Description:
This protein is an alpha/beta fold. The protein has one domain (3-146, 191-209): 3-Layer(aba) Sandwich (Rossmann fold), CATH 3.40.50. The chain has 9 helices and 10 strands. Strand 5 (109-111) and strand 6 form a beta hairpin. The model has no long low-confidence stretch (mean pLDDT 91).
Amino acid sequence: MDINENLITAKANEIIGNDVVRALKRRGFEAEYVPTGAEALKRILEIVPANATVGIPGTVTVRAIGALDALKERGNVIFQHWGPMTPEERREARFKENTAEVFLTSANALTRDGIIINIDGTGNRVAGMAWGNGLVLFVIGINKLVFNLDEGIKRAKAATIPNAVRQNVETACVKAGHCVNCLNNESMCRAILILEQAVKERNYHVILIGENLGY
């Protein structure tokens, strides 16, 4: 892609992104568009208080832009369940994520009219998005945009394949290469959260990034 094509893509993403931001605001979410992951990281560090506890569930996007490391280096207490730990430690970490002052996460899909869609196997992530303490801060790459709810659910289920590969879990969809609506112990698609509006008594802030990030 030459420089002119890059500029055209960036401008188109900005136009689309700002339209989605307006839709999110109509649904009660604080929202903004930034063109790059680097600028999203800058905004995260501005939005998240330096003394706040931060829960970071399973999100590739947040880690890809360096937010976890940057918050740690600044001195924020981070709760996360990724990494080597016992099942008991992982369960406790998930609870701490959901009770942190800031819940920093991404989304599996975002419709052009502002509906946020997520799928979960354990339920901790969708629970933290719907109910808990403090601020829910979404960081979403523009590749997550879809036109409607049906596309959003399909996209969320499709994201399970790279997530399963990342976790070395041989789900039925990994074997088939597509969703087969499996009902077995390996299934990672067990709970779907559709945020049509900001939930009452909860603060939300969405940063939409004009780059492809996450699954």
